[in-house]
Design goal:
The protein has five helices and nine strands, in the order αβββαβαβββββαα. By secondary structure, it is α+β, with helices and mostly antiparallel strands. It has a single domain (7-207), classed as archaeoglobus fulgidus dsm 4304 fold (2-Layer Sandwich), CATH 3.30.2170.10. The protein has a nine-stranded mixed sheet with strand order 3-2-1-4-5-9-8-7-6, sandwiched between helices. α3 links the parallel β4 (99-102) and β5 (127-131). The protein starts with 6 loop residues before the first helix and ends in a 5-residue tail after the last helix. The mean pLDDT is 94.
């Protein structure tokens, strides 16, 4: 039987899923990093920002990369983990953050290891996945999301806005992840501030050489 394309990548996600920590590891959170990628032709522009809990901008970095993989449903980590991990290295020496927010799923994923879990595991830091679209599972009346008889995420929907889907990336509980996302999202916004600013920066910087 012919092996399906990228089966090794799904296997890698399943292997890492067994190592994801879904318990809280932080007592205090001051600085939050948000990171996102935008695309133009075959170029990916990745932007990372660090913002504190009062929405002050602490740091901001950008870097462009050549796209190495196509978009494959369920394998976003192949396309984006390289740019994300390399951009985070730009912050490492001068700035530190307590927790990372990624535009993508964590354990709310068919392999229980989406982009946020993969990156969180690779950098060994608390990480939250915040996705704009649901990849798997069903949303209950209490807004928690079930997949395979397990609660893996939570949907946050503000009046007049589309929902976002929060899940554990690594080294944090779902309860804490929900609290943090709600706390750092401005009243009038849909997306938590670090990710919102990173998204704007990633798009704005695509047009600069």
């Amino acid at each position: 039987m012919e092996e399906r394309p990228y089966s090794w990548a799904f296997d890698l996600q399943k292997e890492i899923s067994t190592k994801i920590n879904t318990h809280d590891t932080l007592d205090k959170i001051e600085n939050i990093c948000g990171i996102d990628v935008s695309y133009k032709n075959n170029i990916a522009n990745c932007s990372a920002v660090i913002i504190n809990t009062t929405f002050d901008l602490i740091a901001s970095v950008n870097r462009k990369y050549e796209v190495q993989y196509p978009y494959i449903r369920g394998l976003l980590f192949l396309r984006e983990s390289g740019p994300l991990l390399n951009t985070l290295k730009l912050l490492k020496n001068d700035f530190d953050f307590d927790i990372l927010l990624i535009d993508g799923h964590g354990i709310l994923h068919p392999t229980k290891c989406g982009l946020a879990s993969y990156v969180g595991y690779m950098i060994d830091k608390p990480t939250i996945g915040v996705a704009k679209n649901l990849l798997c599972g069903s949303v209950r009346e209490d807004h928690f999301i079930e997949y395979g008889r397990s609660v893996l995420g939570y949907g946050i929907k503000k009046e007049g806005k589309k929902p976002i889907y929060v899940s554990v990336g690594h080294k944090i509980s779902l309860k804490k992840a929900i609290q943090i996302v709600q706390k750092i999202t401005k009243d009038e916004e849909r997306i938590p501030e670090p990710l919102r600013v990173a998204d704007i920066n990633s798009k704005n910087n695509l047009n600069f050489t």
